[in-house]
Amino acid sequence: MKKSILSTIDAPKDLKVLSRTELKQLCGEIRETLIRRLSATGGHVGSNLAMVEITVALHTIFDSPRDQIVFDVSHQCYTHKMLTGRRTAYDDPGRYASVSGFTNPAESEHDLFAIGHTSTAIGLATGLAKARDVKGERNNVIAIVGDGALSGGEAFEGLNTAAVLGSNLIILINDNDMSIAENHGGLYRNLRLLRVTNGRVECNLFRALGFDYRFVSDGNDMDAVLDALIRVKDVDHPVVVHLCTVKGKGYGPAEEDREKWHYMGPFDVSTGKQLYTPEPVETYELLTRDFLSDQMKKDRTVVAVTAGTPKIFGFDEPLRRQFPDQFIDVGIAEAQAVSMVSGIAKSGGKPVFGVSCAFLPRACDQLLQELALNKSPAVILVFFAGISEGSQTHMGIFDIPLTIHLPHLICLAPTCKEEYLRMLTWGLEQTEAPVIIRVPGVAVVSRGAELMPSYRLPAKYEIAKRGSLVAILALGKLFALGEQVRCHLEERTGMAATLINPRYMTGFDTDVLEHLKCAHRLIVTLEDGVIDGGFGERIARYYGSSDMKVLSYGAEKAFVDHVPVREQCERYRLTAEQIVDDVLNIVGL
Amino acid sequence: MKKSILSTIDAPKDLKVLSRTELKQLCGEIRETLIRRLSATGGHVGSNLAMVEITVALHTIFDSPRDQIVFDVSHQCYTHKMLTGRRTAYDDPGRYASVSGFTNPAESEHDLFAIGHTSTAIGLATGLAKARDVKGERNNVIAIVGDGALSGGEAFEGLNTAAVLGSNLIILINDNDMSIAENHGGLYRNLRLLRVTNGRVECNLFRALGFDYRFVSDGNDMDAVLDALIRVKDVDHPVVVHLCTVKGKGYGPAEEDREKWHYMGPFDVSTGKQLYTPEPVETYELLTRDFLSDQMKKDRTVVAVTAGTPKIFGFDEPLRRQFPDQFIDVGIAEAQAVSMVSGIAKSGGKPVFGVSCAFLPRACDQLLQELALNKSPAVILVFFAGISEGSQTHMGIFDIPLTIHLPHLICLAPTCKEEYLRMLTWGLEQTEAPVIIRVPGVAVVSRGAELMPSYRLPAKYEIAKRGSLVAILALGKLFALGEQVRCHLEERTGMAATLINPRYMTGFDTDVLEHLKCAHRLIVTLEDGVIDGGFGERIARYYGSSDMKVLSYGAEKAFVDHVPVREQCERYRLTAEQIVDDVLNIVGL
After folding, report:
1. How close does chain A come to B132, measured CA to CA in Å?
2. What Cα–Cα distance (Å) separates residue B485 from each residue in B409, B473, B491, B575, B578?
3. What is the rounded CA–CA span in Å between residue A25 and residue A28?
4. Which residues of B touch A342 (CB under 8 A)?
5. What are phi and psi of B214, to 5 degrees?
6. pTM value?
7. CB neighbours of A471 closer than 8 A, spacing ≥ 6?
8. Which one, of A84, A89, A67, A82, lies nearest residue A168 by Cα?
9. Torsion angle of alpha carbons A421, A423, A424, A428, nearest 10°?
10. Is some CB atom of chain B closer than 8 A to the CB atom of A135?
11. Which residues share a beta bridge with B282?
């Protein structure tokens, strides 16, 4: 059997000796390798298949790492990793786990940044270009940005600065005409017009910003891409190269359903069927979808808002079509989402913004100014909060410090399905304050929490079990851990601890906290987030000048990349056994 | 003497009976009133003089509050306030203090939002428009946005959504060709081209985004503005009206030096001279300017970055001209600033980003992802942090919770000039971690702090005075209060407390904290920021399970609008007398 070309590529320099015919053959091999690997491990299918030719051309024409390449989001970097010394992570099943799905400087000098959020590459590239200029160097700086990422304000800010830098900066727009779902916003009309006119329409967003502009109608045509990159190499000014690609290119099922194949679990290559179809279990995603769509049918002023991730609360394409006026996707633009829901709420509508915990920091100032300062009664649902096994770029532990220090915001942490739905219902009904609900995990728990007619402040905690000596304040999803701690304590010592569901991340229930002083000596706080600036520290401050002791548990302030949840919890002493050990040490039983 | 027209205007309806000649006369009266009032109180001179005709026309043609008007930043709302029942706040010196300098729903139903940050109006307006549509109402929604604010990504995100809303939304661009300082970025080339071609150039940023676009070459020409607004009233789609105005219009000195007159203290109307020229005292602004410009001369890789507020660290126009390559203004775009400095630092440059505390939340995600995750050794200087008498929209108390929970960031709080400069010097030299320095106030303090060769982690606290029983951890600027507390304690009880300068907001000096357990029973923490999620709560958590008591002092979690600092401190028990009372209550002396 003829040796593959791919197997000869250990570094970008190995590309430079290949003919165009060989480069095209290599693209075919890469695509096959990608499909085989993705079918076993899952991953970002669509964007990586779209980017094969552009990435091969980049490493053929440019000279990484001297020439600096920044991938926006970097979920489309698989071919880049294959070509920069990490091939075996894609063609050797035993080494599939040896790389992450994003660029990571710990893996290679060709990965300049750890990146996982959208719209950041242009800004980072302006920094690289500026550093190069003040150091008097002459390399190329290249940012690769998807069309979806252009809806983020940070990308626009980057473009605005890049356009006037006055030196080499090459921005490749990988336009596959898709975000995770379909694109939304005025800018996509311009991209469409540019595609339709072969880049010739006079009214051109990039030229309007002052960029030199080049158009490549088929970004999966190796010759066209190579020629385009050769022409912009070493330019002395900022240039945008607009390349049209096909999301899922070369794999039929992925080309056909581009939203589904944005990210895919393991699948059968011949049929495109997912290998492990999850059991149809109840999830908070589906629970939210059913609740919201029901409310939206009953009340035309209920409006669901997403920032580019509609499926986070179950709004798939058919459901989106069902509510053309009451469902809005603002693009990958969390600031705009919070600003818009503030406007809707202030004017008598009932908006709900569903957002992934990892992206909430994108809207901090809007939470403070547009929302909290104006007491706009919008509801924000924070999904995927808590310790997870995911990427260091998508951790769900940083939200609590960002929100609980803000005036007027009511931050709620339900412990189960019934409590979640009650809080959500109340949040929609009330007209007094912005409400943030931290959705308690993915799989649904039912525990018969004591529900309240209203969740306005001051906070009222639920005393789930009465006991003495030790009281456990177990926030949200960690209520279950609180129950375990209580059980273990009882098993080991016969002592019955008090177990409390605080319900609120903001505000103190001073009645309960004061009353606990009578028969308790130690408070244990549990939260599924970073401990610095979190819920537990507030309780520690509350009791700071009293005789009550407080032990606070939460995640360590650290970036964690793909570490099993159990292992992280052990590291943070967030297991029932460890907590009981600590408690007994202190109360001396 | 003829009665003025202005004196007859108690509400917008009173404008609707006036002839165009009378409206023009009214504009003259308003301008005179503004200049007289501003000369006595100070305020945003340039933008308010520019906006007279547009505001009068708005309230003549539209029907506020049924038609909803949102002012971006809202520092240009003085004429709006004059016309909506608050005239006496401008023409009666005894009532000058009766309104704030920003829109405020507490003052009037014509003020829809409390706004003070840039780039928010379009997003809020998209929300108002959406609420109107789902409620089946038919009013106009109008956003007024300055050209400077368009550089903020949030404004772009708003435009992107607005363009496809499909219903009435009128965006007035008040283009006076200035931000606070001159504009920077590619978009301003397009605005200039539009001005030069009377709006006719084909390549048009707003049309590219899909907007209907109208151009008014003289936005201070009452007839032209009235005609333009009449034409867009009740349109059934989103439209941008681009009006060119003159910053400082009608007042010679303000038209001549537009940066200086963006915001001005009380002045002499005839000469334009400021009445109270501040004594040439040493400030951290000037200290930073001198230090940085010196470093920039010595080292071409030192780069100073601002997001539209160059004077925050003293970069006035001559100084900016002196460093064309090493000084960058990215526009009002804090996210881009953090992203860019991360890129510069990662590539071997030495960037320093100076930012006002009130605007740091704009870049939370960039602090987490681009900066902290990538350990980019950039330096961020946070100015105007702490309790102040300013607007509720510009409070300086929310930064500590936003930064101290982030991994890898080193957050420093110098107590005096020498310590500040030492930390800044070290921050520039080191290549390990991002460094945030909380600049300790405006006026410079010198106290001979113990300086360190390095401020890397783990934290090392400075024990300024040794004592027993009580230890005071006084952060940054509040070190002076710590000294006072110590004095009062000694005066009242003869007891010498320990006084500590923690230096670091992040990290514990466990040696010191453990050692304190020997001879101390109470820790007092002082911080010039919101107490929730702050420094004191971390110390309370540290000692939570020990016998040490902790009393934490800081600002209350609340929005505070123009309340004297002394009054706020008393409210928070942040005075030496109150703290000593509390301490004695606990230690029982």
Report:
1. 7
2. 31, 11, 10, 8, 9
3. 5
4. 113, 123-124, 127
5. -125, 145
6. 0.97
7. A497, A498, A499, A500, A516, A520, A522, A523, A524
8. A67
9. 140
10. yes
11. none
Q: Which residues of chain A does B242 touch, with a Cβ-Cβ cutoff of 8 Å?
A: none
Q: Can you name the residues that pair with A462 across neighbouring β-strands?
A: A501
Token readout for B174 is: 């008040």
State mean pLDDT over A83-108.
Answer: 96
Q: Which residue of B has its CA nearest to A359?
A: B365
pLDDT, residue B280, reads 67
DSSP H or E run through A421: helix A417-429
Q: What is the Cα gyration radius of chain A? A: 26
Alpha helices in B299-444 (DSSP H): 317-322, 334-346, 364-366, 399-404, 417-429
List of chain B residues whose C-beta atoms are within 8 Å of the C-beta of residue A123: 335-336, 339-340, 342-343, 366, 370
- CA-CA distance, B584 to B490, in Å (whole number)? 11
Say if residues A155 and B339 touch (Cβ distance below 8 Å): no
Evaluate whether B132 touches B141 at the Cβ level (below 8 Å): yes
Q: What is the pLDDT of residue B1?
A: 53
- ipTM of model: 0.97
Mean pLDDT of the residues in chain B: 96
Structure tokens at B332: 């009002």
B74, B195, B405, B585, best to mutate vs chain A, most A CBs in 10 Å: B405
Span A46-55, pLDDT tens digits? 999 999 999 9
Q: What's the pLDDT tens digit per position in A327-356?
A: 999 999 999 999 999 999 999 999 999 999
CA dihedral (B199, B202, B204, B209) in degrees, to 10, reads: 130
How far, in Å, CA of A59 to CA of A65, rounded? 10
Give me the DSSP letters along A349-397. -EEEEEEEGGGGGGGHHHIIIIIIITT---EEEEES-B--SS-GGG-B-
**Minimal Cα–Cα distance from A304 to chain B, Å?**
11
Cβ atoms within 10 Å, residue B197: 12
- The answer to whether residue A151 scores a pLDDT higher than 80 is yes
Query: CB within 8 A of A53, min separation 6: which ones?
Result: A27, A219, A220, A221, A222, A225, A245
pLDDT bucket at B441, cuts 50 / 70 / 90 = confident
**DSSP for A9-57, written as a single string:** -SSGGGGTT--HHHHHHHHHHHHHHHHHHHHHH-B-HHHHHHTHHHHHH
Element spanning A485, H or E: helix A479-493
Report the C-alpha gap between A522 and A583 in whole angstroms.
Answer: 8
Which residue matches tokens 């709080």? B413
Amino acid in position A543: Y
Asked if residues A120 and B339 have their Cβ atoms less than 8 Å apart, the reply is: yes
A573, A485 contact by CB (below 8 A): no
The angle subtended at Cα A254 by Cα A249 and Cα A260, nearest 5°, is 135
Residues in chain A with CB shorter than 8 Å from the CB of B114 are 373-374
> Which amino acid, A256?
E
3-state SS, residue B508: coil
Q: Where do we find the tokens 């029932």?
A: A576
**Using CA atoms, how far apart are residues A407 and A347, in angstroms rounded to an integer?**
21
Per-residue model confidence (pLDDT) at position A204? 97
pLDDT average, residue stretch A310-322: 95
Q: What is the pLDDT of residues B50-80, one digit of tens each?
A: 999 999 999 999 999 999 999 999 999 999 9
Length of chain A: 589
d(CA B330, CA B326): 13
Map tokens 């009242």 to a residue.
B492
Helix, strand, coil in percent for chain B, rounding step 5:
45, 15, 40
